[in-house]
């Protein structure tokens, strides 16, 4: 568990947006998506928080938690049906088909 003190320390250290030179960037409300060669896509889950189609701000570690939770569930349900996850090279990043 992350302490309240640690969260307060990280308030100015959030992943608000990305600008990686790996492909065309498409920014959503919470994720930045990059089109990669071979039909793959790089999904970067940021710390942005939104409600009613409006970005309200950022929360430290939100992107990490959201991405890792999604990765965990995709792994847990892998035997039920195929999914799009190829790899999770970073706590905030998922490479998908």
Beta-strand fraction estimate: 25-35%
Overall form = globular
What ranges have pLDDT less than 50 throughout 5 or more consecutive residues? none
| Widest β-sheet, arrangement of strands | 1-2-3-7-6
Order of helices and strands: HEEEEEHEE
Report the sheet with the most strands, covering strand number, pairing sense and barrel closure: 5 strands, antiparallel
Number of strand segments: 7
Seen as an oligomer or otherwise, the chain set is single chain
First-last Cα distance: 32 Å
- Average pLDDT confidence is 95
Secondary structure class reads alpha+beta
Number of helices, where a helix is a run of at least 4 consecutive DSSP H or I residues: 2
How would you explain this protein's 3D organization?
The chain is α+β, with helices and mostly antiparallel strands and 97 residues long. Helices cover 22% and strands 33% of the residues. It has helices at residues 4-9, 62-76; strands at 25-27, 31-35, 41-45, 48-51, 54-58, 85-90, 93-96. The mean pLDDT is 95.
Output the keywords.
alpha+beta, 97 residues, two-stranded antiparallel sheet, 7 strands
Summary, kept brief:
With 97 residues, the chain is of the alpha+beta class. 22% of the residues lie in helices and 33% in strands.
Please outline the helices and strands.
Layout: H1 4-9, E1 25-27, E2 31-35, E3 41-45, E4 48-51, E5 54-58, H2 62-76, E6 85-90, E7 93-96
Antiparallel strand pairs: 1-2, 2-3, 3-7, 4-5, 6-7
């Amino acid at each position: 568990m992350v302490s309240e003190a640690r969260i307060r320390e990280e308030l100015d250290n959030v992943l608000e947006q990305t600008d990686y030179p790996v492909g065309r960037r498409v920014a959503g409300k919470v994720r930045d998506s990059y089109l990669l060669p071979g039909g793959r896509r790089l999904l970067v889950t940021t710390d942005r928080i939104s409600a009613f189609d409006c970005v309200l701000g950022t929360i430290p570690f939100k992107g990490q938690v959201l991405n890792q939770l999604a990765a965990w569930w995709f792994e847990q349900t892998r035997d039920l049906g195929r999914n799009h996850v190829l790899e999770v090279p970073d706590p905030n990043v998922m490479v998908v088909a």
